[in-house]
Amino acid sequence: MKTRTESHVDAADVAVPGPLAVTDPSGASAGLPRLRVTKAYKMYVGGAFVRSESGRYFRVASEEAQGDADPAGVNIPRGSRKDVRDAVVVAKAAYEKWEARTPFNRGQILYRLAEVVESRAKELEHSLVRAGQSRAEAAREVAATVDRAVFYAGFADKVSALVASHNPVSGPHFGFSVPEAMGIVAVIAPESPSLLGLASVVLPPITGGNSVIVVASEADPRTAIVFSECLATSDLPGGVINVLTGYGSEMGPIFAKHREISAIDAWTADEALRATLEREAASSVKRVKTHPSPNAEMWFDRRRGQGLGFIERHLETKSIWHPVGV
Amino acid sequence: MKSMTVSEKSEAQKSTKDLALDFGRAWEYAPSPEATDHVKIEKRYELFIGGKWVAPKSGKYFPTVSPSTEETLAEVAEANAEDVDLAVRAARRAYDGVWSRMRPEERGKYIFRIARAIQEKARELAIVETLDGGKPIKESRDVDIPLAAAHFFYHAGWADKLDYAFHGRKARPLGVAGQVIPWNFPLLMAAWKLAPALACGNTVVLKPAETTPLSALFLARIIEECELPEGVVNIVTGAGATGAAVVDHPGIDKIAFTGSTAVGKRIQAALAGSHKRLTLELGGKAANIVFADAPIDQAIEGIVNGIYFNQGHVCCAGSRLLVEESVHDVVVRKLADRIKTLRLGDPLDKNTDIGAINSKMQLDKIRELVASGEKEGAQLYQSTCPIPQKGYFFPPTFFTGASQSSRIAREEIFGPVLTVMTFRTPDEAIEKANNTMYGLSAGIWTDKGAKIFHMATRLKAGVIWGNTFNKFDPTSPFGGYKESGFGREGGRQGLSAYVELDG
């Protein structure tokens, strides 16, 4: 058992996770250590934290000696087909309302998310450190994640101006084309960076009005769950982003077969998984994009790690015509 | 219209029993066929590969038949996998050697040339299109051919402006595009495919539909005359096996397909793991929604245009009519009257409204689905117009009282057959309109502007026509939601299908 004084984490830096044990504050136990409360890590679906319906889990190890509230390893839900189906139900309902909000409102909610992530920076950094990063790396990643949220917050009400068009058709008609969300976008998040990568692939689709079901990094799903706690305490309506944990290679094909999912954006997929996703998606003419796993550093690049292309990929174009005349 | 004599007028006035149906002789038209003598169709067409007309390695030819006369117009080479391979190699050589290196403005000038040449030969192309495909000459003359020229002209101008198109992202061509097109708008579909591909710097292997290869071969002649570098456009004729050879060829970087959803799904599955880019423009079952406050007579014309244009061989045809319940009976009565006045017959006749069904196979499919509609208990309305002895024809038809789950309400018929259903509230109309795997187009008829925007926002379809239907333009992106495919054709948005962006 470690005490606060033995940990190299300064208590003042750690807002939420306590040390593994402290002396019982009431003093009633007379010198015996207080039993800490460990956290059950759960997936985030429809605004609620849920275990996998399957009851399955996988172990994620932690770097030791971090003064965390958790033991050296934690159990993470291993999502199943039923979990995907449940997520689709809530994501579908959430998408319809989310898309109907004004882009200004979506932008404000994304900004609120940036505020919440900033305020929980220490907790997120701590989770990244437990996953093996240095404190400096973790701080850099969290800062970049906040900035990414701010980037898309400011993009929500500008997308249309950039991708919509007036179509000067040859005839007595007024024609224009507007972008519209596709529906539910299923994402397989990058393995690394587990936080910035996740934010970078789930925020653009929701900026455009989609809802998202994402499988978090297999290597560090815990940070995705801590990020979900940011989602839960921002003003983002439940179901707009649903975070599943588990194996991308298992969940991906389930996404591909589900008819209510409109698109797949896979950032962790080997050639075999890529082929499977593309083949299974054909039965519902799903839009599938698989990406060769980028260097983790790409996500920190303001030109390559973010941009209009990330949003546009999950938009449909709707062209509208009306006669002009009296 | 021929003017009536006094006696004819009084004769028409005498019979007032059913005004709507008593046109006297006012609707009789003298035959007015388009002259075809100046159009020369060869007896046999080879493949157009590497800028040359080459005999197919397959050694096989197939007849292309005029669906309005059932006469063979020409025989056309059938490309096998070996022929497709030669075409892909020619396209690759042209891409590496010339087309990708050419200054974009020069590329654009070649495409402008094609647009101009199509306009010069518009009459001839319209006749070929009508002979080979069966569509009325007034449609090929006034819609297909001018739009085909417009597509080339429009995209020619993009060739040297791609740096403006993607908000600072740099676009580069994909390489060799394999394009497989349908039989309903043969030349227009070739233009939709070729023009953006070429403008963005790709070279092409194009496979026209087996029942309508001629206009694409005439286009090959034009491309020859325009002196495009050899191999930039290659045209391989054939049926499904030829298309599959194009799709499966490892030397192709991008597949663009327009056709049925069933075939589109097969192509998408076949390309899995291949790293080829894909865009699909597939089927539809569009809702055409008529509110009680719509200008009903205009709406009737829109309904007719929506479903009977091009014999209903239109992926975005308004094949499900959703009528607000309170005006259902009047719409049905007017529509039943109106379809009796549509003139069916010789597609070459300038007065013909409804031409020939494209093929025997398609006619059989239409008959089968109409029979299913009757069997499932819907009420049939059909024009009693005379049907020519020769050729494949089907009279304008609609059903009422069909359930949403019936085949005629769900499946794409791709013929002059409309299914009429009703709704009571805008929400119900949206629910019913979106209750399909397709999402290509939709129509809204109402006099209330706010209602049009309300509906247009909620309908899940790529093209929405408010108080109009079946309008197309190269500046207007076209393409579907859901199982109607992905990617757009036309407009700035359509360029994305043929470029790789750097960010």
Q: Compute the gyration radius of chain A: what is it?
A: 22 Å
- The CATH architecture of the largest domain in chain A is 3-Layer(aba) Sandwich
Integer count of domains of chain B: 2
Biggest beta-sheet profile of chain A: 5 strands, parallel
State the share of residues found in helices of chain A, binned by percent. 25-40%
Mean pLDDT of chain A: 90
Q: How many beta-strand segments of chain B? A: 20
Q: Separation of termini of chain B? A: 59 Å
Query: How confident is the prediction overall: mean pLDDT of chain B?
Result: 95
Q: What count of structural domains of chain A? A: 2
Protein model, in words:
With 326 residues, chain A is α/β, with parallel strands linked by helices. Chain A has 2 domains: 1-37, no CATH class; 81-323, Aldehyde Dehydrogenase, Chain A, domain 1. Chain A is built from 10 helices and 12 strands. Chain A has helices at 81-100, 103-119, 121-130, 135-153, 159-163, 196-207, 221-233, 248-257, 271-281, 308-312, and strands at residues 43-45, 48-50, 57-61, 73-77, 165-167, 173-181, 184-188, 211-215, 241-244, 261-266, 287-290, 315-323. In chain A, the strands form 4 sheets. A 5-stranded parallel sheet of chain A has the order 9-8-7-10-11, with helices on both faces. In chain A, helix 2 (103-119) runs antiparallel to helix 4 and helix 3 packs antiparallel against helix 7 (221-233). The radius of gyration of chain A is 22 Å and the shape is globular. Mean pLDDT of chain A is 90; it is low at 1-21. Chain B has helices at residues 6-14, 81-99, 104-120, 122-133, 137-156, 162-165, 186-199, 214-225, 240-248, 261-270, 296-308, 328-340, 360-375, 407-410, 426-434, 449-458, 491-494; strands at 44-45, 47-49, 52-54, 61-65, 72-77, 171-173, 176-180, 203-207, 233-235, 254-258, 277-281, 287-290, 320-324, 379-382, 397-400, 417-423, 441-445, 463-466, 485-486, 499-501. The longest helix of chain B has 20 residues, at 137-156. In chain B, 39% of the residues lie in helices and 17% in strands. Chain B has a 7-stranded mixed sheet, with helices on both faces. In chain B, strands 9-8-7-10-11-19 form a 6-stranded mixed sheet, with helices on both faces. By secondary structure, chain B is an alpha/beta fold. Chain B has 17 helices and 20 strands. Chain B has 2 domains: 44-281, Aldehyde Dehydrogenase, Chain A, domain 1 (3-Layer(aba) Sandwich), CATH 3.40.605; 287-466, Aldehyde Dehydrogenase, Chain A, domain 2 (3-Layer(aba) Sandwich), CATH 3.40.309.10. Chain B is globular, with a radius of gyration of 23 Å. Chain A binds chain B through residues 162-163, 165, 167-171, 173, 175, 177, 182, 262, 271-272, 274-279, 281-285, 287, 303-304, 307-309, 316-323, and chain B through 150, 167, 169, 261, 264-266, 268-269, 271-273, 280, 282, 437, 452, 456, 461-468, 471, 473, 475-479, 481-486, 488, 491-493, 501, 503. Strand 12 of chain A pairs parallel with strand 18 of chain B, so a sheet runs across the interface.
